[in-house]
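ESCALATION

Customer reports they have been waiting on this structure for their group meeting. Please prioritize. Original submission:
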Amino acid sequence: MVYAPKLVLPETEVTGKWGLEQLLRSRYPGASFKGQDPYNSMLPNYAALMYRDDRRLAAMEEFGRLVDTLKAMGQVSGSSELLQEMQGTFFRRPTWREEAMDRSYNGNRR
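Update from on-call: job pushed to the front of the queue and completed.
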């Protein structure tokens, strides 16, 4: 008998554009409006920014558990290399539009 890992698709792959718009409005109420494109919009879609950031943080947490597991197994050098790679990969590099949305949402504070 062969056991294969279950295929887990991200929500964006399963729901499509319309489903993602619904998901963003239900998960982050008030951060986007009906009919707003979740991928590319002229008006700021703060819900899409929060969704991407939540996915980034979830991936960082998953890799953090892997780093802890490697440390527990005694592979300290491998865990430190993975931690450095993870920090370089998941470091948030916001664009000018995301900076403006953050400032607008936080009362012009960063």
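Sent to customer with the following note: The two ends are 55 Å apart (CA to CA).
Escalation resolved.
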